[in-house]
Amino acid sequence: MRALPALIATLALAASACSANGESAGPRVVDSTGPTTTEPGGTTPGTDPDGPDNGGSGRSGGSGAGVFPRALSPFADCSTFLDHVKAEARDRVGPYGLDGSPWGYWGVEDMIMDDMATADEAADAAEPVPASADSAGGGDGDLSYTGTNVQELGVDEPDIVKTDGTRILTISENRLSYIDVTGDPVLTDTLTIPEGWGHELFIRGDRALLFTNGGQWGYPMPVDAALTDDEADLVSGDIAPEQYGPATLIIDVDLSNPADLRIAATMRIEGQYLSARAIDERVRLAISSPPNQLPWLYPQNQNGEDRAEEANRDIIDESTLDDWLPNYELEANGASTSGPLLSCERAHRPADFSGFDMVSIVDLDLGSGLAGSAGSIDAVGVLAGGQTVYSSADRMYVATTKWVGQDIVDDADLVREWSEDYETDIHSFAIAAGEPTRYVASGTIAGSLLNQFSLDEHEGYLRAITTDGSPWTQNGESQTHLVVFQEQGDQLVAVGEVGGLGKGEQLYSARLMGDVGFAVTFRQVDPFYVLDLSDPTDPRVTGELKIPGFSTYLHPVGPDRVLGIGQAATDDGRTTGLKLSLFDVSNPADPREVAVWTQPNGTSPVEWDHRAFQMFGSTAVVPVQTWDGDFNGAVLFDVTDRITEVGRVSQVPLDAAPSSDCRVITSDDLTEDSSELYWMARDGYAHVQLCEPGATGGWGSWYCDRIPVDELAGWYYDNEATEADLAAIGADGDDRIEICWSDGDYQETIQRSLVIDDTLWTITPATAQANALDGLGVITQISLR
Predict the structure, then answer these.
(1) Whole-angstrom Cα distance, residue 720 to residue 155?
(2) Highest mean pLDDT among 49-63, 87-101, 754-768
């Protein structure tokens, strides 16, 4: 297994004259481009969006495509930006602020999006590659290893496990572990990450960049004393109830001494971390930042709504730039710097109002890291929300589904409106090598994206596949459609479309590659569609196969084979367990399911996270768990013209007798009935321990909440009892309490796999295990605690 080449799946399928069942008028594409001027061949904006010539960008135009004059340009200055957002806010503010309801900033739309959003990372090329071609440096050229399963070859994606063939870095429960695999594998050090959740990373040389979401709470503010008595009687006693403000954390870890990992720098950015992509050493980070919560005046009853709305307009008039633009704070080299994440001149607005959030693309250098970024943060943004991220080699796209408008929050037909009137905005950013990121264009399409695999770029065209109709009701009105967009000026303009896929069903998976695409919809049976994308102005459905069950992840495994991973189902749509399907697409008009493997009562993280899938040569590695506890591990398959199971790996932690360098707290140390800690310690509900600063902590394979002493009272809302217990056990302000839980099979669940030379590594939250590829025997197991 030396110098294994990266697999490039080339699926050149013959085009067919068929359309999507010969029906459907196609999708409802929203087009707000306005007047056009036509020039032969079409052009796109030049590298200088403010330049007078708007020279061509070199991206190919479609047949007969027109050029739209630039309706958008960066804001001229901060005064222009502030005037714009204030004017938009004045038009939309109500008695409860800008969201039109008494629920604070996080209103109905945000709660829905929290439920529906982002299990949508990426997937495709998963072959072992030479170290020089992977995302991390440091290989010796002779090692072969697998990297992260990504959507686009050459566009790396962050993950919880990374390797360069000489080391493995993995993040588990706020701990970064470094495993040296140059000889006998050894854990050299573990670094506790102080805050955040959902960590993922890139590595390069002596540096790891970690990305995570954090946050901070805001607190109610008193009513302005300047209010008249009449006004005060009509509004509530607080302004702006307790709010949650999302924050993105970037952590730069120094790997130069594997035995002593250190945090070299940290950056906190106002806004939610969406995802990141790395091409060579350049990282682009996508962040969606809501405006800072303004101190809205809330009415006590309907009689006070007019006064509150008038007062809220005054609050908007008095707002400043800091209330609308995201800020950052960077701590590096012993110094702290802070300021706006992007300049007003690097902020844009789409032609149609898209909200007050700011989607920002931040440029980082893996070589210099955060320390080299002090005073030179480079970011570009657009006034819009962000959820789904897709990137090709030269464009990054951020998409947002708009589920419900402010004007229908109180509509009695809200569910109907949701079913019929939501749409998705897509924003394009140029990420050419060696150049700053540029905002390029925006477009809108009806319906919602499933995940990042709903987007794909090929030869200058963006293909987007969405489902119209409600995604959470089965009213028979939904359908899936594909639209092809071309950049024309600052607009993503629809130049081709095909619809009518899966009427009354929902999209469960999509894969768009080159001149071919695949889609799976489901309600009771699984229509597997083959799409001919060779003509961007005339995409077509060439073939359809209806089978029980569905695939939620599709992976190319050869020039005419596609592997689907999802769920088996009965004829009436009831799921029965994990299913792998091998599709023969050599005849686009007649796709066939040629092989099936099932695991009753089974499931796999691959179903919702493509990065859990691994493939080298013809061997696929799929983590598998069963609901009945029959199996928890990974299954290896040989996938050629059939699916053949070749072996299984399980990973039970070997540390049967947990130990810790912290002091165990029992009920005898606490006062009876004093706090939640007492009952957890007495009944064995959890393992409780007190850890001094610098203690490693942990308790075997158990999951531990790590709570600073000064934050513990807030966890259980019994301040006096908790403070009494902390005093009883002699806890200092710098200590922490760890509450550890036995979470059963979770610690044995394989989340990732990778291959280094002749060794298969499998990673769970508790352990990293080396397995011999020949026979799959366990070589060693390393605790990540």
Answers:
(1) 53
(2) 754-768
Average pLDDT over every residue of 285-303: 86
**Closest C-alpha to 652, from 767, 740, 729:** 767
Question: How far is it between the farthest Cα atoms of the chain?
Answer: 84
Nearest one of 587, 569, 570, 589 to 579, comparing CA atoms: 569
| pLDDT higher than threshold 80 for residue 310 | yes
Report how far apart the first and last C-alpha atoms of the chain are (Å, whole number): 31
Three-class DSSP category at 745: helix
Which residues are registered as beta bridge partners of 37?
A: 67
Q: Is residue 241 very low, low, confident or very high in pLDDT (cuts 50, 70, 90)?
A: very low
Amino acid at 424: T
Q: Report the distance separating Cα 419 and Cα 403, nearest Å.
A: 9
Q: What is the mean pLDDT of residues 340-356?
A: 88
Supply 357's token pair: 């959030």
Residue 420 in 3-state DSSP? helix
- The C-alpha atoms of residue 46 and residue 73 are separated, in whole angstroms, by 12
3-state secondary structure of 95: coil
Handedness of CA 133, 136, 141, 142 (dihedral sign): negative
CB 601 within 8 Å of CB 612:
no
Distance CA 348, CA 437 (A): 13
Give which of 118, 124, 136, 123 is closest to 198, Cα–Cα: 118
What is the per-residue pLDDT for 83? 95
Among 106-115, 308-317, 496-505, 660-669, whose mean pLDDT is lowest?
A: 106-115
The 3-class secondary structure across 118-165, one letter per residue, is CCCCCCCECCEEEHHHCCCCCCCCCCEEECCCECCCCCECCECEEECC
Residue 758 · residue 728 · CB < 8 Å: no
Distance (Å, rounded) from C-alpha 420 to C-alpha 30?
14
**Residue in 417, 429, 415 with CA at minimum distance from that of residue 386:** 429
Report the pLDDT value the prediction gives residue 505, as an integer from 0 to 100. Answer: 84
Determine contact, residues 331/265, Cβ cutoff 8 Å: yes
Helix (H) or strand (E) run with residue 719 in it: helix 719-728
Cβ pair 608, 578 in contact under 8 A: no
Q: What is the pLDDT of residues 420-469, one digit of tens each?
A: 567 899 999 999 988 899 999 999 998 889 999 999 999 999 999 998 86
Q: What is the CA radius of gyration of the chain?
A: 27
Which of 249, 188, 166 is CA-nearest to residue 213? 249
d(CA 638, CA 619): 5
Q: Is the separation of the CB atoms in 595 and 606 below 8 Å?
A: no
Q: pLDDT at position 582, please?
A: 97
pLDDT in tens, 378-414: 899 999 889 999 999 999 999 988 754 434 444 444 4
Give the separation between CA 258 and CA 191, rounded to whole angstroms. Answer: 11
DSSP state of 5: P
The full DSSP string for 697-766 is ---TT-EEEEEEGGGHHHHHT-HHHHHHHHHHTT--TT-EEEEEE--GGGGG---EEEEETTEEEEE-SS
pLDDT of residue 245: 76
As a whole number, the mean pLDDT across the chain is 79
Q: Which of 451, 462, 353 is nearest to 402 (CA)?
A: 353
